[in-house]
Amino acid sequence: MTPIQRDTLRKQAEREQGQAIAPALQPLDRAMRYKLGADRARLKKIASMQRKAEVKAELLPDYLPYLEGMMAVGRGDEVLTQVMIWAFDAEQMDVFDRLARYALDNGIAMPTEFARPLGSWLAESVAKWTLRQIEAPTASPNAVALNPFALWLDEQTAHMDMHDEVRAKLKRVCGDLLANSHPAAALDYFEEAIRLDPHIRIKKRMTALREQLATTESPTSQGQAAAGATVNVTTTPPRPLQFDPSLAVLMEH
């Protein structure tokens, strides 16, 4: 797909989604839903998880102009959340971040086959993925890039109902991400995590942080950090969806 074709598709989606006619009755919307069904069927036939991730990465550029047009007029449906899930599985984190923020901000539902609501799925998926990056032999830059998103997600889902164990995983990851730069705030996250799930394995980390704070910070500075005075949750303003440059060649097919 050429840049001109992508721009044309985005504008058509924006035009159709902005009309009074129900989006599902619009020609482009019907075409994208048909494509989504065909792509799902294709993925179900693939046994290899690695190959599935590769195919999902190949599929993403076909949907992005359509989704940009949809989001430009404030709409969204399971096409958006399905592509969001594919972006996550393919570790295209810039795309995932953009779609996930939009979906959560606008209350977009997960695809019908998913039993859990969006907030719960995001919390557990992001927590597990980030923990894998943190514990990898060589830390991935993606874990650092996702740091603001994990903190933002914890804040945005605070009012949502989810299993305590799931919320504890996200709290624990937030603590891990802040342990080096904001140890007092990290300790607060760990304490919340262990309150929600007493079996979560962070007691040694908590002991180490308490010892570090006792020897390096005064009571005043500890109180300020614990209150979140130096921790800012980074938000990402709307921006065009972008890909890893290594996938650019895929966008020409």
From TrEMBL:
* Entries under InterPro entries matching the protein: Phage_P2_GpM (IPR010270)
Sequence segments annotated as region (Disordered): 213-238
Coiled coil ranges (UniProt) are none
- Pfam families (alphabetical): Phage_term_smal
Q: What are the GO MF terms of this UniProt record?
A: DNA binding; endonuclease activity
Tell me where on the tree of life, at the top rank, the source sits. Bacteria
* Extent of Low complexity compositional bias: 222-236
Protein's name according to its UniProt entry: Phage small terminase subunit
The taxonomy runs: Bacteria, Pseudomonadati, Pseudomonadota, Gammaproteobacteria, Thiotrichales
